[in-house]
Structure formats: structure tokens, C-alpha cells
Design goal:
With 104 residues, the protein is α+β, with helices and mostly antiparallel strands. The protein is 42% helix and 21% strand. It contains four helices and four strands; from the N terminus they run αβαβαββα. The chain has a four-stranded mixed sheet, with helices on both faces. The longest helix is centred in the middle third of the chain and has 15 residues. The radius of gyration is 13 Å and the shape is globular. The protein starts with a helix and ends with a helix.
């Protein structure tokens, strides 16, 4: 499901204040990275990721791979920071960034 521009704007507003919870380095999308990404998306729904690869094309390919492997939607890419969204129907309101910052 594609996000509307209004939804993206609201998610960007929330994501601006988040710290990166997953950091992806030159090794790319390893099993450990994918497991941590899945856990973070289940807990927080909206997360910020730092991608530290040198080449722009490599970074775009890695972002696509992460989105496809996790089932998340891309909200925003700014430099090395990426904001991803995957809704969880049974999200913990104390952990979910969407629930915690809904009035933001």
C-alpha cells in the first residue's frame, strides 16, 4: 500500500525526532541485520535506520532490499538516514512510535 503525501508528511514529522535503532554497514543485509530490523519494526512500527555505505547506487539497492525483506514501506531518505514504516496490529502502545507521538 503506497503512502499518501499527507501520511508521509506526518510520519516524517515523527521520524525527525527518532534516533537510529538499526545501523547497516558495508556488510549489507546480513541475517543479524534483518532479524534486528524485523524486531525493531514489530516493536516500534516507525523506525530510523543509518546506512553507512559509500556509493549512492549501492545505498539505494540496499534500501530496496531491506524494504522487500522486511515488508516495510519507505517513508524518507535523507543522506545516510532512512525512515521505514511497517504497521503492527498488536503493537505495544508503550513501544510504538506511532502511538507515542500521535499528537506530535
Amino acid at each position: 500500500m503506497a503512502l499518501s503525501s499527507e501520511q508521509k508528511k506526518a510520519y516524517k514529522r515523527i521520524g525527525h525526532h527518532l534516533k537510529p535503532v538499526v545501523i547497516v554497514s558495508e556488510q549489507g543485509a546480513s541475517e543479524g541485520v534483518l532479524a534486528e530490523l524485523d524486531r525493531a519494526l514489530n516493536d516500534h512500527e516507525l523506525i530510523k535506520i543509518r546506512i553507512t555505505v559509500g556509493d549512492r547506487d549501492t545505498k539505494q539497492a540496499l534500501i530496496g532490499e531491506l524494504c522487500q525483506a522486511s515488508g516495510a514501506e519507505l517513508v524518507q531518505v535523507i543522506g545516510k538516514m532512512v525512515i521505514l514504516l511497517r504497521r503492527n496490529k498488536k503493537a505495544n502502545p508503550n513501544l510504538s512510535n506511532l502511538a507515542r507521538f500521535k499528537d506530535f
